Amino acid sequence: QVQLVESGGGLVQAGGSLRLSCAASGRTFLSYYMGWFRQAPGKEREFVAAIRRSVGNTYYADSVKGRFTISRDNGENTVYLQVNSLKPEDTAVYYCASRLAGVPYASDYDYWGQGTQVTVSS
């Protein structure tokens, strides 16, 4: 089992920034990929970004490329999502997830956190 705990969400004005964190514990060797997804009210959960923990390869949704950056600190078993130039449409609950294998941008991850709310005001 892998436990994931997100933090760092909050209320920010459009154009602002936040740094989301995801702390992993348990059998973290099962986390080949770490990903961030988000779900806005009334919408399906969507892929945001992912990182391959061992070598640091990164993957992004087109909607966030150039604005969001995913990174990891393997020593701390933590993954970060730096979110810049935020827009009202970025408002959502952001979830951290991990998977052992498969496609980094698919939603069928093995383990999920509880989520952290990001609200962007216009």
Plain-language structure description:
This protein has 122 residues and is mostly beta strands. The chain contains no helices and eleven strands. It has strands at residues 2-7, 10-13, 18-26, 33-39, 46-52, 58-60, 68-73, 78-83, 92-99, 111-112, 116-121. The strands form two sheets. Strands 2, 4, 5, 6, 9, 10 and 11 form a seven-stranded mixed beta sheet that branches. Strands 1-3-8-7 form a four-stranded antiparallel beta sheet, with no helix packed on it. β7 (68-73) and β8 form a beta hairpin. It is globular, with a radius of gyration of 13 Å.
SS elements, strand count: 11
Shape: globular
Largest sheet: 7 strands, mixed
Note the run of SSEs as H and E: EEEEEEEEEEE
Poorly predicted spans: none
Could you report the average pLDDT, rounded to the nearest whole number?
95
Task: Tell me the structural class.
Answer: mainly beta
